[in-house]
Fold these 4 entries.
Entry 1:
Amino acid sequence: MNAGKEINMENFTYYAPTYFAFGKGAESDAGKYVKRFGGTKVLLHYGGGSVIRSGLLERVKESLQQAGIDCVELGGVRPNPRSGLVYEGIALCRREGIDFILAVGGGSTIDSAKAIAAGTVYDGDFWDFYTGKIVEKALPVGTVLTISAAGSEGSPDSVITKEEGMFKRGATGEAFRPVFSILNPALTQTLSPFQTACGVTDIIAHLYERYLTNTKDVDVTDRMIEALLLAMIQAGPKAVKDESDYESRANIMWAGMMAHNNSCGAGRTQDWASHDIEHELSAQYDCAHGAGLAVTMPAVFTYTMPHDTMRFAQIAVRVWGCQMNFANPEETARAGIEALRSFLISIGMPKNFAELGAKEEDIEKMAHCACFGNGNTGAVGGFVRLEQKDVENIYRLML
């Protein structure tokens, strides 16, 4: 296990031009925003189920109609969105002359919409973007968010599962940032407690992935991350307990966007080991991403904690309220990891492999896939370089 190189705050550029419309009833203006940002013929992309039963899809379609905008529908997005539907969407957009994509749903729907948007204007296979090619051009994407979790409504990122081989991989590029996102916290009130808890977990993971850095003297973004974590710790249990708690859901929704639009990650190295290791779980077993992260994060943190014990001790004290043991900082660091684990379990998240449906005999295959599969270069993680044997050891900590 090799340590990352210590560096000072990095030079960076930061540009996040998404227009946000936040609040009750905001989805009724979807057509106005599509027109404002140049759309004339829209692919309306969604999953199904709740967006149809709740009447949300009809409200969005009515808004598009009132704005004089034609639309073509493509439903069927699943959690851990699949490449097959992306290819179908690309063909549909080309055939119908689509010039704008409107995603109505959560992170899976938005990620699928982004992949379609990039693939439609690209001569090659869209999967090239998920094996390292930077996205430089895409159709404009707008979103109507229904789940606070992935942060895709404000980020330049997308994650897709390739059905051939079941590789779950991410792509990035500024062309992926939605031109507008409609955020109505009331739309999340139909979620189950489990779905809400999964979203809270994903948001916490996005914050930790940025907090675990080898960059020194990044106090501003440290404090931003800590504040968002504290807000999640306060609002998360309330929203899980009471689906009608609009105020908690409003705070979670805005925190979810802030956690992943990279305002908290500017100028610092980031980790992403927990996500890369979890992706193999959700690709292999189709478990909820947040549930997989709840099991993965404590294991990764326990394994990597010796690399920078004081960083883990710092978040333990500032966020989880642990008492600092100056004679034994490792004790404080471990207490913080245990506090995170206990919090996630308290909101209904699984605690081990068995509760995810994962199998010990798959560990070597998943670790190899995480490190080498689909063009990966032999290791994961930006905080600590984790090679295949390290990843195997981390999976075993989840048993």
Note: The chain has a mean pLDDT of 96.
Entry 2:
Amino acid sequence: MVKNTLDNCKGDIFGNFLKISHHVYQWSINTPTRALNRAYLAALSIKSIEADYATSQDGEVKDNAIIVKYLQSDIDKYLAIIKVNLAEFKVSRFLLNDRHQSYWSKILLIEEVLKKYHIKTETIEPVIAPNVEELARTPQQVNKYDKYARLKDDFTQVKPVSDKTGVLPRSLNRTFNKIQTDLKGDGEAEIIANFRRDRRVTQAAIRCFLLLIIIPVITQQISKQFFILPLVEQYREQHHAAVFINTEMKEEAFRELEDFEAELKFENLISLAPVISTVENELELKEKAQEIALEFSHKSSTAISNVCADLLGLLAFIIVALTNKRGIAAIKSFLDNLMYGLSDSAKAFLIILFTDIFVGFHSPHGWEVILEGIANHLGIEANHSAIFLFIATFPVILDTILKYWIFRYLNRISPSAVATLKNMNE
């Protein structure tokens, strides 16, 4: 009987979880359309107000400052609605990579309304119409231009900056490449094509980076709050599981109860509270103990749920990374160009900041806090011997890898940055 009841509860919880997940997914997918429709309706409302005011036959009403003020307040309200929903449309469309052409007619009407009130928008990338010079090109010229314009979107083929080094320093190579590009007849087309490609890489990298953060976090929180935690609490309650899952929780609960008992005794001794009998004192302690037991039982259930939910979040992260190789390659290319594009002093500053935080003199205290926080999050008793062993080995390994990277790659890519780093360390 109990088993059937538990199975039914599991089925109900799982069914509710699937329904909620489906609704959340549909709501997320429909966000661009929903936001654009709200902005479109607000734009239609503004056009309706303008039409009613223009067709009004009552001259006194049209010249009345109070009426104009009220109409202007309504228009300002609708303009605010348009701006907020256009921002939501732009962000959601960017994250979902939504390219539906059904949006264009509504966007054109919204742009028409906003231009009347001198409001600039950046809802979509402008479509550049070909000019007369481009239309007059021969097929050979068009093919020559397309050689640079039709760049590959496969970012996995992009070679990292560290593999582009040669005998000469990178600064001289950049100078020679710039002169060579300027002397080409189609140098302008190549520059524009490279700029557009860099923009696509940046957009794909930011989109993938946000997905790698948002999807695992949403998966972890939804699975924990709506599925795993209720199931764990129900199971522990039906099987009368232990209140504490480790000795640290038990010691913390005992300290809290001892502090409460000492506080009661102290208040009675200094007459801040009415004198109570031993029986009443025991009843208050029992009530407090039950309250503490419920609190730590919930903490134990939460810790167990965190383990399962974190595994699901990690699985979601792996799935997103495996199914979005193009975005991962874009992130690598973006970070590569960002790191090696910094000035020498900026590189040295970031390296020193990183090493001082993670492998510096004060880093063991930070690592200890991080590891103890992870242990508490997962409901694991913090093993200080294992923590000290980790602190004695991992930062050393990390420091060795960083020094090898500086010697192997940074030293040949940017020798001046290595010199600046040595001077700053001295």
Note: The CA atoms of residues 89 and 196 lie 23 Å apart.
Entry 3:
Amino acid sequence: MENKVILFADSSVDLSEQLRERYNVHILPIHVILNDKVYEDGVDVTSQDIFDNYYKNKTLPKTAAINFEDIRSALKPYVDDGYEIVYISIGSALSSSYRNSCLAAEELGGKVYPIDSCSLSSGAGLLVIEAAERIAKGMSAKQVAEEVSALNQKNHASFILDTLEFMKAGGRCSAVAAFGANLLGLKPCIKVFNEKNGAMAPTKKYRGKFEKVIFEYIDETLASYENIRSERIFLTYSTAPESLVEKVAQYIRDKGIFDEILITTASGTISSHCGPCTMGILFMTE
């Protein structure tokens, strides 16, 4: 008998088209407002478009959460066809997407089960995969939502920035702090705090060229956790030279910890806040 459960997520989960197909996940794009025009993240605007516009016009886009009506309209046909829906959104500390999905769930008569990822980017993507695997085993949407939500505290996301220019432009750090960091060659590591529903904060500042400190960051991050789950790790980046991405991926492979390294690019929603040559590793523990 067909398990009539379907999986949705917003575009900030940063899954490649191949992964979306592999795990049968439907994506709703977050809105990106650039030069007074509204785009759909990952559909008609990319991170590189956002960076190019910034360097040309010195303006960053605004992002808008997927509103209640967009979510309701997307999900209603599946509910009408007898499906239950698991919906995973960016952490509620970062966006109103989760709240809007809860409102849509109420409107659709309890057939939608929202999950606050308490994370962002492929940190949320890890939970999407967990949900997809449970759906494939025939679990109900309610059970999937309960089990995946319980994994939040075992989900670890962080990334390292090459520049604070975009944080400064977005009002997330002072001009003085950005100038000082750039002058000293500091590369801050930003961690996502699941217990704070996805809020972010700097945890360490590395000194040196990005091509050097990225490996220090990987060593220290992996060493700081016990019982790392071996199934997969995401290596997610905004923009970076392909040679560096492959070198970092090989460095992780050589550690022999993970069965699979999933390399993905960050959506415009994520990249607009952290800038080019941002890179992070995202994984789970037991």
Note: Confidence is low (pLDDT under 50) at residues 169-181.
Entry 4:
Amino acid sequence: MATSISPLAHVDPEAKIGNNVTIHPFAFIDKNVEIGDGCEIMSYTSIIRGTRMGTDNKVYQGSIIGADPQDFRWKGEETYCYIGNRNVIREHVIINRGIASEGGTRIGNESFIMAESHIGHDSHLKDHCVIGNGVTIAGDTEVGECTILSSGAMLHENSRVGDWVLIKGGCRIAGNVPPYIIMAHNPASYFGVNAVILRKGGYTEDEIDDIAKAYRHIYQTGTSVFNALRRIEADVKPGKVRNGITEFINDVNLKIVAIPRDLE
């Protein structure tokens, strides 16, 4: 199928449009935009300068991709928003581009971003994520692969969420959430291992048992995170899941959500 651009859409002459792209009436494609093959841009969507979009993405009505960053540190510099491949971006989503010419906001591949969610400047959303309706993701955050942020969840600036995490609806996260777990309530608290999703993702029962054992040391013994890591190394056999947990926690200097400060 050839590229189809409605005469009622605005496509800047400087924009680079791939093959088999469909741009519907009243879409706005700014200058300095690249849209890869097979994308579909629905009506009343705006793709703003500095956006680099991969292949086979579908962006629904009213979304703004690459919007100006909402940060006083941005002074009008040329900055970027990178969208990977095969993402679905539903109605009225706003994704801000970065505040500096290097880095930028980055959305990976094959994620589903639901209506009226907002992803702030310089955030990094890895592959295969689900972002629920009305989720708010502030700037300079990271969301790991195969992670679900349920509707109305809020991720504060400079927070980091590991791989295969489920954040329950309406939960506010201000900090770092290690991989493979469920977080719920406000204030946010540990709600168990994300076992159902992990099984669907091919994790074995032994791996899920190792994850549960590791997090009992972290969240259910009342010891410090430092001591919990030592116990995990003694009690859980080496492997992908143990390394994923310990490496994440060490990377964030032992500071994880739902641990009292005197136990960090």
Note: The CA atoms of residues 119 and 138 lie 6 Å apart.
